[in-house]
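The freezer alarm interrupted the setup, so I double-checked each line after restarting. Inputs confirmed:
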Amino acid sequence: MTHSIIGTSVKRTDLLAKVTGDAKYVADMNMPGLLFGKTKRCNVAHALIKRIDVSKARALPGVKAVLTHENVPRVLHAGSPHPRSASVTCDQYILDNKVRYWGEGVAVVAAISEEIAEKAIGLIEVEYEELPAVFTVEDAQRPDAPLIHDREPGGNLVLPPAIFTRGDVEKGFAEADFILEGEYEGGRPTPAYMEPNVCTCQWDGNGNLTVWISTQTAFMVRGIMAEVLGLPLHKVRVLVDHMGGGFGAKQDLFQHEFLCALLAKETKRPVRMEFTREETFLGGRTRHPAKIWLKQGFRKDGTITARQARVVFNSGAYGSHGPGVTNVGTSALVSLYRCENVHLEGRCVYTNSPIAGAFRGYGVVQTYYALDIQMDEAAVKLGMDPAELKLQNAVREGDIAPSNHPLIGHGLEACIKKGMELTDWRNLRRQPRKVEGPIRYGWGVGCEMHGSSAYPGIKEQGNAIVKMNEDGTAVLLTGTAGLGTGAHTALAQIVAEELGLKFEDVSVVHGDTDVVPWDIGAFASHTTYMGGRAAQMAAAEVKKQMLKRAAEQLDARIDDLVVAQGDITVRARPGLRMTVREAVMPKKGIPAAQLVGTATYHPTKSYSFAAHFVEVRVDTETGYITVEQVIPVHEIGKVIHPVAAAGQIEGGIQQGIGHTLYEDYQIDMRTGRSLNANFVDYKMPLAMDMPPIKTVILENAPDPGGPFGAKGVGEDPIVAIGPAIANAVYDAIGVRFRHYPIKPEQVLTALAQLKGEQQTA
Amino acid sequence: MTHSIIGTSVKRTDLLAKVTGDAKYVADMNMPGLLFGKTKRCNVAHALIKRIDVSKARALPGVKAVLTHENVPRVLHAGSPHPRSASVTCDQYILDNKVRYWGEGVAVVAAISEEIAEKAIGLIEVEYEELPAVFTVEDAQRPDAPLIHDREPGGNLVLPPAIFTRGDVEKGFAEADFILEGEYEGGRPTPAYMEPNVCTCQWDGNGNLTVWISTQTAFMVRGIMAEVLGLPLHKVRVLVDHMGGGFGAKQDLFQHEFLCALLAKETKRPVRMEFTREETFLGGRTRHPAKIWLKQGFRKDGTITARQARVVFNSGAYGSHGPGVTNVGTSALVSLYRCENVHLEGRCVYTNSPIAGAFRGYGVVQTYYALDIQMDEAAVKLGMDPAELKLQNAVREGDIAPSNHPLIGHGLEACIKKGMELTDWRNLRRQPRKVEGPIRYGWGVGCEMHGSSAYPGIKEQGNAIVKMNEDGTAVLLTGTAGLGTGAHTALAQIVAEELGLKFEDVSVVHGDTDVVPWDIGAFASHTTYMGGRAAQMAAAEVKKQMLKRAAEQLDARIDDLVVAQGDITVRARPGLRMTVREAVMPKKGIPAAQLVGTATYHPTKSYSFAAHFVEVRVDTETGYITVEQVIPVHEIGKVIHPVAAAGQIEGGIQQGIGHTLYEDYQIDMRTGRSLNANFVDYKMPLAMDMPPIKTVILENAPDPGGPFGAKGVGEDPIVAIGPAIANAVYDAIGVRFRHYPIKPEQVLTALAQLKGEQQTA
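Predicted 3D structure, all chains:
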């Protein structure tokens, strides 16, 4: 089947608005009487609030309202879908009389200017009764650890341990020729989206609440807001147009959104609360710091006989997506490399640390980092090439994925093979490594697989409404969010392709929960896959109605009609044709009809694959690691928009380089105080830090459930880059790092230690 | 069938917003960089523009753009549906080098303030070459009349004469015992809506145009704007939320909307153009002044043997809805009172007068005024009671309506009978009339019938999308407009009733052409009838899906389920029940689904009926007529919202009293100059001028095509009140007026003349 619109990189519909500054983000919204909200944050990590005095703040001219735990409803909430999902924990009050981490909000103020609000915050006096605090998962799991939430003693677990078992792991280890065992650790990167969290709330006289918010999950916001505030869903309207990124974290409702709504209710005026950059750290979400103990048994031929792991995620002060991350991250280890005997245990532990949440890769970044490095270690031990070993063990068609769905296609094998071919891998690895004085070069490979869609079945669904205008142009109504990834351009391509229209004849309506059909939100790499499939199905429904009209007018059979680029032709009857516009315009004897198609799509789980081949440069004098080049090979089924897909891959690699080499949000391990909540001290790779990336996208394993066979690509690229870098560093300098970020001082220390060992040996 | 929501006067959903001033009208919209547009209007009635000099206006600081006929596209437009309807004429250029009536726009200015724009308008110099002008239909139809448009000589007809014939009118007159013949005349009332015409236009960088506009017909605006500006439909977004009335006139696009869009395009800034009150006269639309020559033959028993009429409508300078009004107004005379031999001719004539357009009653006000007065005259001649004569001849079930559809129910008969019963009519008329010194009292009756929906078939359709939220609340997406009549409250009632929800659990999304399904607009009394039926059908579709889920969960048959007020019960199985919310919430084994229903409804034509019984008070010393009381009896099928329906009736009566007794927009018959374009000189009845109105609504002739049997009521009440007043005046003082408005000086003149005749006799 040939396509005229999908598979081409059409100009993104939001391009001009964004480059000209025309695009309106939530913080650009202004309205008469707008008030500005600010949050008072605590400077202790674990404490009871003994006294909170807001009298001076209230007395400040320009202050319109002050809220504390004493005058807001005591309602638990969570950044959860509605109805509540097992993926998240509902354990946070809007405001509590207890604080659980340094920087948690204890009061909010609404004032006529940001400056006055800020000043009022400074006038609030809080007296704390400090409680013992724990910052590491080890401390939090001790029998005598202070309880962060009101659970049973020893109860700092966010959820009971998650166990995943296949086969007989003891038997598997017994059959092994050798066993590898190691501890791996992931740091605390943050999503660091360009657009800080922001929302504006406004009530009308009928008690209807409008929320403008930068969110990935508008309908979840609607559901949670409605639940927490005690409103029916149709009295909450959530609006979001453009967004400056989310990376998973903007699935959550944080704390300020409810307070913003309550401030607006009390003042009867619109209130905006916008995070400062510092607050995106303090009040935001991080990736879960993780410790992974991983043990695998190998036969001499490279077969993996057993795999055992204990994974512990640090949830910080609240549960957020801890359950989901624990389940997804841990269960990911049943797959990627085939193994019949697996036993995995995942834990998620409360600590008095910043809140970890959903973040691109969702637990898998951490566990595949461990797995893929250990595979590299095994290759060394086996005297095999690591790419060959991974190829040999790569999951393939029919294997059971972590989601218990059979995999489609030999995607991972194909990615590894293609990368080996493009790098001339066998030759490359046979040759001695490049050395330039103190500079060492090395190559590594990292692999991953990632599912599109989160929990197929009960809750997950794509919805779409397509309506065709009377001139044959069409509008897609979709609840999917546009985080900045070009999702709505891809969806418009899908609709245009399916309807046989020109791309520019399709527009997209989104971002208004009153208007568009329900959507679960933009996460789990499923927007194009699931929202796109629903859009395709709705478009197909309209196409059927449209072709019926055309067939009547052309006196032809519907099955003989071909429609593309707005033109309808008839098979085997050249010259007989009409435009889509002509087909739908009412005319004598043919009444007008508003052609509308609706569709709901319940997805299965579809897996995408990638192998990243990476060259690094290690300066053995400074310890500084540079990524020299990346050859990422991805299998994502049919590509809808090649440039956007490549953009996702490049962006994921940039973010992956960040957490592997630089990014780590740190707290003082004595007080819990935030140490680097800004972009000077929290270093991210900039455009100028980026290596050349030669992205290759395969389209050999389309998913029959995706639109035209498309699968997700949002999360994949951030997963494989990390272990590829760590493995390349080993290749360059012979030092095995089992954590991220790998910092220059650690490189130097390790090199010194290695030298010592070599001298001793 | 019992109903729990329709038929009750629920609180209007827009009530609080309107009384608190929260409701945003187009003129309340503000945005950064907003410019203000103003129109330069001509002070000649018919002329060529020899020279137009805008240099001084352009040079004025703060002026951003000036447009004249020299720099706008020369495109014909009309306030027409898209595709063009036979109801309207497409004969006006955006700006022309010729002006055709006093007050027509010749240039527009956009400036940073209204004051500067106004000043700039004053700086524009225009030199005219005046042409001979005609203001009456008689002058315009003379063979040597100046041509107002570029038509054939003698071509001041807007359209060829419209002929309607039944039976043999010559034979009918031959069979008559006597013949009545008379000339009747209607003046030039204006709709005088509270909210002046206003629109704001804004372009984005992708060439998408957004238009905020006070309109009854958002999708027509979209279609015409797109056509005139050469855009596809999906690049034009038309937004309208609240409206301060339209009364038919706001179906048109006028002249300033295109210019507003062009000013916005040129300045790359949003531009608002808002009429002053004076401009609502100068640039607005009036009812068509009409002259009706009517001749009927009667038998002694009251049977009408023949009816012949020549109707001439004065279209003013442009055609607007002239064709539709001519056809509807003229053809109305085939019905109301039964007659087998009918010959009607309708003409519509251009004059150099203000533009006449669509206005509540749409031509029927004029022709039924003539018919119903002549029936009163016939009753006098026959020595019959006029109500009895009308009852005897009233159309009834199965009679063919002007639309060629058979009528449903004995609606008119029932209205007349009910009114006679309530007024104790026979006694009333038998008694001598009340006299208090110079004050005379009298009673009259007027009748009418009016169709819901304009042109059933090709173009006319109602559309709706209903989606149910995951908590069982629902949203209706409708393209119908809310002119201020409470239409969306009625539609929400219909959806709630059909879905079995509480009224407050349904919300309505409207007023955004990008979002809602196509709608023909709010006119022809069809919003509740047609849009409501579509809403009901879409709701029924959702109900089916919802009950399927409930039936599965209750293990019951769908047909046994009963749903009302949000509760689902099972027939013959008491105790077995669940809520709608429970039915739609996803749960284990039952996936979520976005329940969506869509519907398109192609209406037939449904007729409503009314008889108005009116008492007037005539002061024979001042000539002043006061309406003392009105007993309007309406048959409108099932009533959805009794208070809103009664509100329509009362408002129509107020407007009808206005045009019958006071309202007449006048021009100088020598120059064409507007004489009373303001609310001081153009007198309308105020609340304090209103008589007691005892509205009675019958529900005995429901329309099977309407939602729950509902029919329209928007236009009916303005039609019957006029002849009822004129007939009552005759009853009071014995003077027969055959025109409106009936002014005090005319009453005095007529009384003097009558006295003279009586003295002579």
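Quick read of the result. The first strand of chain B starts at residue 35 and ends at 41.
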